[in-house]
Every structure is written in structure tokens, then in C-alpha cells.
Amino acid sequence: NAGVTQTPKFQVLKTGQSMTLQCAQDMNHEYMSWYRQDPGMGLRLIHYSVGAGITDQGEVPNGYNVSRSTTEDFPLRLLSAAPSQTSVYFCASSFGIPSDTQYFGPGTRLTVL
Amino acid sequence: AQSVTQPDIHITVSEGASLELRCNYSYGATPYLFWYVQSPGQGLQLLLKYFSGDTLVQGIKGFEAEFKRSQSSFNLRKPSVHWSDAAEYFCAVGANNQGGKLIFGQGTELSVKP
């Protein structure tokens, strides 16, 4: 199993550009989520999904869109990048049971100029 | 609302010394509690978790944590720290009615002196 994979590893955008961060898992997990990590703030939940076709907002959803057309994939879209979105982004997945372990991808480091 | 507080932003310990990282949570019912570790430039790896039963939980790499309901705490401990333990540590809480959703603390960065 590859686990949770994320692409790209690094990305530099200019303000106003759009892009999609890719996330895929091969563990047949129902629950997937996106976090952003900023110094001193831990991980904050952006969006999550409890299954294909179902998504919901987390703590910091503004400026981000998601969709879940398959169990395996959960892309995160930035429609118009802003410097405040400079961060490290992590995708995670689990079976969705509260006690279950979440498995994290290696992260995408995004810089918005 | 659920919340997690890690009071210590940065801790430095000598190699071979004992370690305790603090975590306090706010939640109305019995929470599901997790400790994750993040090495520099890496993703997060689960160290241990608590969801029921024995309040002293053993994890990987020689770590343990104790759930104390009366203090709303879930502190992480290790009797003897190794240089390779230098990393950032995150406490997280999940709730029974929220599927896999986790709320994370701010993290504690651990440095290890030779």
C-alpha cells in the first residue's frame, strides 16, 4: 500500500492564481480531510469528507473548495490564491470511526507571493 | 466546543532524561485522545491513542500517556529520551458524534541536548 499520497510536494503561486492540491489513498478509507499547518497554530481542519459525494467544512474553509467523486481521491482547490494561504497542507484519511487512527500524507508546502 | 491546549510551545531535555509533555482538553463527554509526532519535513505519525479501558496507554517508541478525567489531561511521558525523539508533538481529540474529525493542539517542539 502506498498509504496517503499528496502532490505536489512544493508549489509557488502568485496572488490570484488557482491550483489544485491532489490527495489519494489506497486503504479504502471513508473519511478524508485536509489540514493546514502554520507555526504556533497546530493543524487546523479545512474541509473533510465522510464518504464519496459528501463533504463538509472544518474550522478554516474560506478560500478553499473540495469535492469527493471517488473513495480514493480528495482534491483541494484554491480558486484565487492569497498570501494568507501560504502554509503546509496535509491530507489525512481513516475509516471514520472516532477511535480510528488517521493516516497523514507527507504534505504540500505552498507559498503564495 | 472541543478544544485542546498544549501549554508548552518548546521543551528542551537532556538525552537520557525523562520527558513529560502536557495536554489538556475540553469536551463534555469521554473523548477519544491521540498523540502524534512530526519529524522535521515529515507528515504526522500516531504514537498512541486512548478511547476506553485502562487509562495508562502504551505507544510506540517507548512512549506512554495517562488519561486523567478529573484533570481533563492526557500527558505524554517517556522515561529516557533519545536524540532521535527531537520532533514536534501534537495532542488531538476526537468526538463520538463526529466520525473521524480531530481537533489538534498547537504542538510542543522537543529539543534534545547531548
How do the helices and strands line up, and which of them pair or pack?
The complex is a heterodimer of chains A (113) and B (114).
Chain A: E1 4-7, E2 10-13, E3 19-25, E4 31-37, E5 43-51, E6 54-57, E7 64-66, E8 76-78, E9 87-94, E10 103-104, E11 108-112
Parallel strand pairs in A: 2-11
Antiparallel strand pairs in A: 1-3, 3-8, 4-5, 4-9, 5-6, 7-8, 9-10, 9-11
Chain B: E1 3-5, E2 10-14, E3 19-21, E4 24-26, E5 32-38, E6 44-50, E7 56-58, E8 64-68, E9 73-78, E10 87-94, E11 102-104, E12 108-113
Parallel strand pairs in B: 2-12
Antiparallel strand pairs in B: 1-4, 3-9, 5-6, 5-10, 7-8, 8-9, 10-11, 10-12
Task: Give a written overview of the molecule.
- The complex is a heterodimer of chains A (113) and B (114).
- Chain A has 113 residues and is mainly beta.
- Chain A is 0% helix and 50% strand.
- Chain A contains no helices and eleven strands.
- In chain A, a hairpin with an 8-residue loop joins strand 9 and strand 10.
- Helix content of chain B is 0%, strand content 52%.
- In chain B, strands 2, 5, 6, 10, 11 and 12 form a six-stranded mixed beta sheet that branches. A four-stranded antiparallel beta sheet of chain B has the order 3-9-8-7, with no helix packed on it. A two-stranded antiparallel ribbon of chain B has the order 1-4.
- In chain B, strand 5 and strand 6 form a beta hairpin.
- Chain B is mainly β and 114 residues long.
- The radius of gyration of chain B is 14 Å and the shape is globular.
- At the A-B interface, strand 4, strand 5 and strand 9 of A face strand 5, strand 6 and strand 11 of B.
